[in-house]
Specification:
One of its GO terms (molecular function) is oxidoreductase activity. Pfam families: Aldo_ket_red. Residues 52-348 form the NADP-dependent oxidoreductase domain. It comes from Erythranthe guttata. This is NADP-dependent oxidoreductase domain-containing protein. The radius of gyration is 19 Å and the shape is globular. Helix 3 crosses helix 4 and helix 8 packs across helix 9. Strands 8-1-9-10-11 form a five-stranded mixed β-sheet. A four-stranded parallel β-sheet has the order 4-5-6-7, with helices on one face. A two-stranded antiparallel ribbon has the order 2-3. It has one domain: TIM Barrel, CATH 3.20.20.100. The chain is built from eleven helices and eleven strands. The protein is α/β, with parallel strands linked by helices.
Length: 363
């Protein structure tokens, strides 16, 4: 079912700080992401252009799920190097959220604060450099009323040290319903606090359309081994309505990189998800990914990300905790897997029973 979404983010766009842009919907179900002259793509019917690959900042400052429950200066410097390496490699789209690294999620320092700091420091060296920043609003049970969204966004902007964000997203569906949140997100566009907003696919698309704001994107868990967006109709609905699908955890939190084996599983909470038993079943697919990559001079990580880009209308946002990872991501674009290879990997992946990539995903 197209509207069966959980732990997802949806976004819409206003082309300027005060004037809404009318969405352009696909009448024949065609894919709406169009490559621009700069090698970027447009998000849905918006005018927001982002790089074909983004960078997720979930792990920055986090100590509840990532970083082995510890954050120190070494990890801070590594995150800063990941940011700079991304910019140097041509990746300028960054995704964060108010809960990442925050006290409410038992983190050490807000991911938004870190991203804002990194942007500021980079601009001191290179005043002309540009980034596209996406963040998210947490629909917490006690947040009731239109002003809750505006207040949260202003707090995010303060942490980011920005006057507006390019993309604002609803992090998860609200317990008390979602219509009010959609109107609040529209309010923030019209007040000039954001260039893009977020909410619940077909219903959200129609509600935002009434206010002249196109629903630009829908962020969900999507990878070669977790293809629920294809199976529940979310991907096809995005394509039909001209909404870009932003894929978080595109590497299955590292399980598809080739780094882990049955004898070397991920640490922390991920270890209870990607168990030795699961990694054993995954090995034939990993081996084939490696073989295909060798033919292109590419790593398994680059092959897996390229597979997602090949699905069209998809912008993956893998997370990078150091410069080496960010540099590797940059090599995932600029080339294309063959159609036969895309389908072969899909067929092999279908033999692996999917796992939920994050515990709250199906709440």
């Amino acid at each position: 079912m197209a509207l069966h979404l959980s732990s997802a983010c949806f976004s819409a766009f206003s082309g300027s700080k005060v004037r809404a842009v009318r969405a352009v919907a696909s009448e024949q179900g065609g894919v709406s992401v169009k490559t621009t002259d700069e090698g970027k793509v447009k998000l849905g019917g918006s005018e927001l252009k982002v790089t074909k690959l983004g960078l997720g900042a979930w792990s920055w400052g986090d100590t509840s799920y990532w970083n082995n429950f510890n954050w120190d200066d070494r990890k801070l410097k590594a995150a800063k190097s990941a940011f700079d390496a991304s910019i140097d490699g041509g990746i300028t789209f960054f995704d964060t959220a108010e809960v990442y690294g925050s006290r409410m999620s038992f983190g050490a320092i807000s991911s938004e604060t870190l991203l804002g700091r990194f942007i500021k420091e980079r601009k001191e060296r290179d005043p002309d450099f540009e980034v596209a920043v996406a963040t998210k609003y947490a629909a917490l049970p006690w947040r009731i009323g239109r002003e809750s969204v505006i207040s949260a966004l202003k707090d995010s902007l303060s942490r980011l040290e920005l006057s507006c964000v390019d993309l604002y997203q609803l992090h998860w569906p609200g317990i008390w319903g979602n219509e009010g949140y959609i109107d609040c997100l529209s309010d923030s566009v019209e007040r000039g606090l954001e260039k893009s907003v977020g909410k619940r696919l077909r219903e959200a698309y129609n509600q935002l359309k009434k206010r002249g704001i196109p629903l630009a994107s829908n962020q969900v868990n999507y990878s070669l081994i977790y293809r629920l967006p294809e199976e529940n109709g979310v991907k096809s609905t995005c394509d039909e309505l001209g909404i870009t699908l932003i894929a978080y955890s595109p590497l299955a939190q590292g399980a598809l990189t080739g780094k882990y084996t049955p004898n070397n599983t991920p640490t922390g909470p991920r270890g209870s998800i990607y168990t030795p038993e699961f990694m054993t079943k995954l090995q034939p697919l990993i081996n084939r990914i490696k073989e295909i990559g060798e033919g292109y001079g590419k790593t398994p990580t680059q092959v897996v990300l390229n597979w997602l880009v090949a699905q069209e209308n998809v912008v993956p946002i893998p997370g990078a905790r150091n410069a080496e990872q960010a540099q590797e991501f940059a090599g995932a674009v600029g080339w294309t897997l063959s159609n036969d290879e895309v389908e072969e990997l899909r067929s092999m992946a279908s033999q692996v029973k999917p796992v939920v990539g994050f515990p709250v995903e199906k709440l």
